[in-house]
Write a structure and sequence with these properties.
Blueprint: H1 15-35, H2 41-51, H3 58-65, H4 69-81, E1 85-89, E2 97-101, H5 103-123, H6 129-152
Antiparallel strand pairs: 1-2
Helix pairs in contact: 2-5, 3-4
């Protein structure tokens, strides 16, 4: 199926533009939640990636956050300095650094998570449950499509 045409392509109908704007607006509006804890949204995302098990190593975290290895190392350095994360070498492969949240790291991640939940619930108060579930389902489908394109090397 071909959806877009040269004559009917504007930012208002562009999936890429809409996704970027939603991300930018959401990030900007939620940043004060994290500032109250002395962290950034990116730092909180890293803590949540580790806490939920999506990232157990620096390489996993780099992929999950779409960061390069250098930026991820600096991010983990900061989290470690703050006492929120520990790094340990894998016993079977010394090149691998395993990541774990400290008790303080888990506590701050959960506090922020709860504030994020409250904030999004306030924003979505006028949406019905079906609308929210449909949006999440479509976003998950788009993410899977984009993950597959990246894995298969389908780039422009």
């Amino acid at each position: 199926m071909v959806f877009y045409t040269k004559t009917a392509f504007t930012p208002e109908c562009s999936v890429g533009y809409q996704a970027r704007r939603v991300h930018q607006l959401g990030q900007g509006l939620t940043e004060p939640i994290f500032a109250d804890e002395g962290m950034s949204g990116t730092q909180w995302s890293a803590l949540m990636s580790i806490w939920t098990g999506r990232a157990t190593t620096c390489a996993d975290l780099s992929r999950d956050l779409s960061h390069d290895k250098g930026a991820t190392t600096r991010l983990v350095d900061t989290l470690e300095q703050r006492g929120w994360v520990t790094r340990s070498r894998a016993a079977d492969d010394r090149r691998i650094l395993n990541l774990e949240l400290t008790t303080d790291g888990e506590a701050v991640a959960i506090r922020c998570r709860d504030r994020v939940i409250d904030y999004w619930n306030r924003l979505l108060v006028d949406w019905d449950k079906t609308e929210i579930e449909t949006l999440i389902g479509l976003m998950q489908k788009l993410r899977i499509t984009l993950d597959a394109a990246a894995t298969e090397g389908r780039r422009p």
